[in-house]
């Protein structure tokens, strides 16, 4: 078609200008307001009930503003979930020595895990809601697998050395990680005082539950 390449070049130029304009005008405060409103609403009324309209109202932004930064509700929830899992992974493995004995790494992982929950109560409860929902068992879960790599490596080393009583990673997690998480959640709800002594006991119980 006559003039086709010229029109195509002009379209690319306009899209490029629009992209750089968007990047210059990106409002991080509005994005953070949207993220915090989403976390808060999901924890308050559940994932299914937290509509884009309700999120926009709580964040004090227009619905159109949300769609500038996120494709839809699933994209919004997914991006927040991935960011949260990345934060958790960084906190859990913070300050750990890959060459340390397995027992030492086990304890450090669990202490850091509890610290993340206590430091990010609302975010952690949000992550749990999303993880338990059938809606987002797609790309965001696959993308977050990398953040569990050190713990999975720990399980592999423990299995190789004959340290653990079971070779199923899911069962090992159920016995040593989830009980600690549940105690931390009960602490958040005010039903339990998860102090240092009880954390020490929980870690010891978890270790005894999975090791020979």
List the helices and strands and how they pair.
Blueprint: H1 4-25, H2 28-45, H3 52-59, H4 63-69, H5 73-92, H6 102-119, H7 121-131, H8 139-144, H9 149-160, H10 169-176, H11 178-189, H12 196-210
Helix pairs in contact: 2-3, 2-7, 5-6, 5-7, 6-9, 6-11
Describe this structure in words.
- Keywords: DNA-binding.
- It comes from Paenibacillus protaetiae.
- The protein is mainly alpha-helical and 212 residues long.
- It has 2 domains: 1-70, Orthogonal Bundle (Arc Repressor Mutant, subunit A); 77-212, Tetracycline Repressor, domain 2 (Orthogonal Bundle), CATH 1.10.357.10.
- Helix 5 packs across helix 6 (102-119), helix 6 packs antiparallel against helix 9 (149-160) and helix 6 runs parallel beside helix 11.
- It is elongated and about 60 Å long.
- The termini are far apart.
- The mean pLDDT is 87.
- It is 74% helix and 0% strand.
- It has 12 helices and no strands.
Mind describing the biggest β-sheet?
Answer: none
Assigned CATH superfamily of the largest domain: Tetracycline Repressor, domain 2
CATH class of the largest domain: Mainly Alpha
| Strand elements, count | 0
CATH architecture label of the largest domain? Orthogonal Bundle
Q: What is the strand content?
A: under 5%
What is the SS-derived class?
Answer: mainly alpha
Shape: elongated
Oligomer description: single chain
- Could you report the average pLDDT, rounded to the nearest whole number? 87
Provide the number of structural domains: 2
- Give the SSE string: HHHHHHHHHHHH
Question: Cα distance, first to last residue?
Answer: 75 Å
Summarize the amount of helix as a percent range: over 70%
CATH topology of the largest domain: Tetracycline Repressor, domain 2
